Amino acid sequence: MDIGKKLKSTRVFLGLTQEEFCAGIVTESFYSRVENNKSKISMSDLISILNYHNISLYDFFASADKTVHDKKRVMQSFINDDANRLKKYQHLLKPAQKKYQLEFKLMLSILNDQIGELPKGTIEKAQRQFIRIGKLDINTLFYINLLVPIVEFRTLKIIMNYLISSTESGKLCDFSLQLLCHSLLHFLNRCYKEKDEQEAKMIIKFFKNIPTTSYIFLEKLLVNCYECLFSGDEVKLESIVRVLKLCGYGKYAVSFERIKNNFETE
Q1: Are 256 and 241 in contact (CB under 8 A)?
Q2: Given 19, 82, 128, 213, which is the most exposed site by the fewest CB atoms within 10 A?
């Protein structure tokens, strides 16, 4: 088994440097030699590194490359709001295992707007399992996305403030940046529901400081929509909605029209 290759593919997926990935468990220079198959890592050090990044030993040895690739496809389907594709991928991450069952249940409930139908016990279990304060790797950013719709708003504000104060967007890989932006957008939706304009302004300001790339062009447009909702600029909002429709993002345009109408009637 090529341990070095498997470690490297896992590290690259998480968007971490060698120094970040080895986490002080072994030296960076030694870890570099392991990735290049010039040194062998002990089982205890390997387990410590995997545990640090919440990677099970089973997944690593069973099919590390495939598991990492498949989980990224699942995450991508979720942030693309593609419930149909997500259902097709359910078999990829062994949904019989409890942790994957919970992740899929939450993802599908969020995408189908059925969070209110989840049992209280499921919500509490998800909060215990997914709330993490520590290194913001891809898994943590993904779990924050799952938490945004289910955590009490006061607690969520603490989590999101920690997120933006601990994140240097310029150092994130493209996929991590997508996960970050997706969680911020859904938090803005919570802010709008809670009528918390001050919190929303802080998120919008942070968002505007993120360099625009093709990976987050849509997210930037959607943030502008939220800014218009808070400021009451209906003319600009309608213009952005038209752009969304022209660019093939009709479902998002309809969503903002519905949000606007719902809150106008309250």
Answers
A1: yes
A2: 128
Q: How many CB atoms lie within 10 A of CB 152?
A: 9
Quick check: 67 and 93 in contact, CB under 8 A? yes
Angle, helices 234-246 vs 217-231, to 10°: value is: 160
What would the pLDDT profile of 75-88 be if each residue is shown by its tens digit?
888 998 888 888 87
Q: What is the pLDDT of residues 244-255, one digit of tens each?
A: 888 888 888 888
Write the DSSP symbol of residue 90. G
- Sequence-ordered alpha helix ranges (H) in the chain: 3-14, 18-22, 28-35, 43-52, 57-79, 83-88, 98-111, 120-130, 138-147, 153-166, 174-194, 197-208, 217-231, 234-246, 250-264
CATH number at residue 19: 1.10.260.40
Whether 203 contacts 234, CB under 8 Å: no
Tokens of 94: 């062994």
Phi, psi of 53 (to 5 degrees): -100, 15
Residue 56 belongs to what H/E stretch? Answer: none
